[in-house]
Design goal:
Blueprint lengths: L4 E4 L2 E2 L5 H12 L4 E9 L4 E8 L1 H18 L15 E10 L3 H19 L3 E5 L10 H5 L6 H4 L21 E5 L4 E7 L4 H11 L4 E2 L1 E2 L10 E2 L7 E2 L6 E2 L2 H12 L3 H7 L14 E2 L6 E8 L4 E8 L7 H14 L4 E7 L2 E2 H14 L8 H12 L9 H4 E2 L14 H9 L7 H22 L7 H39 L6 H42 L5 H26 L5 H36 L3
Parallel strand pairs: 5-7, 6-7, 18-19
Antiparallel strand pairs: 1-4, 1-5, 2-4, 2-5, 3-4, 8-16, 8-17, 9-14, 10-11, 12-13, 15-16
Helix pairs in contact: 1-2, 2-3, 10-11, 14-15, 14-16, 14-17, 15-16, 16-17, 16-18, 17-18
Length: about 625
């Protein structure tokens, strides 16, 4: 089951008084569902960067509490520091990590901004993806003039705040909030101590590129002759094209290389509108949303290519690493591994692992941790420092710590056997469904590259993907069924001495019963998907594994029946007649489908098995 995880990185204009910062982070941590990851104070900048994660609602609440506390503790009239700033909480971006979109995060920024403006009477500006108008996307533009120029800025009709009063708040200043992509700080390790060698590769990778040259005498680009624009000679920095006019070269770069020449020059501090004759020609780098430099790290005794991936969905760490490996080899160098500094979104690493497995000719429809380990090994993430998945990856699939599925098999069986109402049939039904899905995945993966034809191969791949998804969800459902029953039992224990208490108790009990219906119904539906995957694996999988697939759809059918039975037993106590009437035909239809699949697949499987036996 996918989690919904948002990262929030508020920057507070206080980096010297750590007691004040502790009060601010205490306010953030007071929100349940939020995890504080890092506090990075700077005395010279007089600024602290705070990083925390959680579900969307919790993160917005924590951000508000942190800002409200900062409003009480930080007085911008007395604040000085080297870093640009507009307010006590200068900027507060929301970053999608898992299960949320950039649009979702933009909406979170708007929610925060509206509340800060209304309750704290602080002017609020939106930037980046949440910006209310294009000219406010760039943080530097919004912050121009900083705190000292804010009072005058607020008098300009073009700079009315998005939320809050259009009047100066001398103690706080203004808040800037928005939504941006996750930045991955990523270093690539070389078998060299030469910073210049790392820098040469870095300039090939980074979006802003480098000064263009031609006629290199070796693999190092710096060995060539530097190019400059001249009258009637406007060379392309990425190939041998020479335009007689700047506009011709501009069109060539757009059509042939896919970049805007004026933007490339602007990134290198050249304004094409003022003329380019006499200016250096620039060669565009390989990757968008990629910043890179070379440096030497004494602690590691080697050079590194230090990279910031400002949008990993546009440019992945894997793509940059593989390009760096080729560039290094051309220079007689070896990439020994790489390093992720700080955190990495789950999907970024998971997609890399899937791609490496596919490159190896292996199926990527395997357990999530296997995919992540493939990424760790392939990218050499343990080269200079230990890479711990649980600490470094944001948004790992949900798991229940110390839950039923963390028990040894014998302990789980013993726990079920005890004279307690939970765990019971609902949890065991979910366990049965998860095992059926696991067997379906096993058979499908065993037949990789050995299917009868391409159509069968694709169907097995789809079956393996479905089975892994279902298996992961059902593993969670083992514990969720117990939690659902516990919620109902907790409601039953509520006081019922007065009419008001009785009404509240009854309402909570009905809510608990509906949850106790929804969870096993999901178990039944997922178990049916496991049955479908197992049947597909039986039809097209390795004949020697046919009985594994047959056990898969048979045990998964127990998950369907068990889930439905648990729905029905809880429906009898529900007072919502419309809900009960809606659920009964749903259960009947699903059970009929499962029975038909069992009959069909069992007949087919037995026939296939009989044909394999000697006469």
């Amino acid at each position: 089951m996918t989690q919904r995880v948002v990262e929030c990185v508020p920057n507070f204009s206080e980096g010297r008084d750590l007691a004040k910062m502790r009060q601010i982070t205490d306010a953030i941590e007071s929100v349940r569902g939020v995890k504080l990851l890092d506090v990075d104070p700077g005395a010279d900048t007089n600024r602290s960067v705070v990083t925390f994660v959680g579900d969307p609602d919790s993160v917005v609440e924590a951000a508000f509490r942190g800002i409200a506390t900062a409003a009480k503790l930080i007085d911008m009239r007395r604040q000085t520091g080297a870093h640009p700033r507009m307010g006590a909480c200068d900027v507060c971006p929301f970053i999608p990590v898992e299960g949320v979109s950039m649009d979702d995060c933009a909406e979170l920024a708007r929610r925060l901004g509206e509340r800060v403006g209304r309750e704290l009477e602080i002017p609020v500006y939106l930037y980046e993806h949440a910006a209310s108008r294009p000219e406010r996307r760039n943080l530097a533009v919004v912050r121009k003039g900083e705190y000292e120029g804010l009072e005058k800025k607020l008098q300009d009709p073009a700079w009315q705040p998005d939320f809050g009063p259009a009047r100066f708040n001398p103690g706080f200043g203004a808040l800037i909030t928005g939504a941006r992509e996750f930045l991955i700080a990523y270093n690539i390790d070389l078998n060299s101590t030469d910073k210049a060698q790392a820098s040469d590769i870095a300039m090939e990778l980074r979006e802003k590129g480098r000064v263009a040259r031609r006629v290199q005498t070796n693999a190092y680009y710096s060995s060539g002759k530097e190019l400059r624009y001249a009258e009637a000679s406007f060379p392309c920095g990425n190939c041998d094209f020479d335009g007689k006019y700047f506009e011709a070269t501009e069109a060539h770069c757009r059509e042939t290389h896919g970049y805007e020449l004026r933007e490339l020059l602007a990134a290198n501090d050249i304004d094409a509108a003022k003329g380019v004759v006499g200016q250096r020609v620039y060669r565009a780098g390989l990757f968008r949303a990629c910043k890179a430099i070379g440096w030497y790290v004494d602690a590691y005794k080697r050079a590194q290519i230090s990279i910031n991936l400002t949008n990993w969905r546009v440019t992945s760490a894997r793509a940059v690493l593989e390009a760096a490996r080729k560039l290094a080899a051309a220079r007689g160098l070896v990439v020994t591994g790489s390093e992720i500094v700080g955190l990495v979104p789950f999907q970024a690493l998971y997609q890399a692992g899937r791609a490496y497995l596919e490159d190896q000719g292996k199926r990527a429809a395997v357990p999530v941790m296997d995919v992540l380990q493939a990424a760790v090994l392939s990218m050499g993430l343990n080269d200079v420092a230990r890479f711990e998945l649980e600490k470094k990856v944001l948004g790992l699939p949900k798991a229940y710590a110390a839950g039923l599925m963390d028990m040894a098999c014998r302990d789980l069986v013993d726990e079920v056997s005890r004279a307690t109402p939970a765990p019971g049939g609902g949890s065991i039904a979910a366990l049965a469904g998860s095992l059926g899905a696991a067997l379906a995945s096993m058979v499908a993966n065993l037949t990789q590259g050995k299917a009868a034809n391409e159509t069968a191969e694709q169907q097995l791949l789809a079956a393996a993907e479905k089975a892994q998804r279902v298996k992961d969800a059902m593993v969670l459902a083992v514990d969720e069924d117990t939690f659902a029953f516990s919620a109902y039992m907790d409601a039953r224990r509520l006081p019922a001495g007065t009419a008001e208490e009785q009404a509240r108790r009854n309402a909570k009990m009905q809510d608990g019963l509906k949850l106790a219906v929804e969870v096993p119904l999901r178990t039944a539906r997922l178990s049916y998907e496991a049955m479908e995957a197992a049947e597909m694996a039986m039809q097209h999988g390795n004949p020697n594994s046919i009985t594994d697939a047959m056990v898969g759809f048979t045990i998964a059918s127990a998950g369907v029946r068990g889930g439905i039975w648990n729905v029905l037993i809880n429906l009898k106590d529900l007072s919502d007649a419309a809900f009960v009437a809606e659920m009964r035909p749903v259960c009947a239809k699903l059970l009929a489908q499962a029975d038909a699949l069992v009959a069909r697949a069992t007949t087919d499987g037995n026939a296939r098995l009989d044909s394999m036996l000697p006469n």
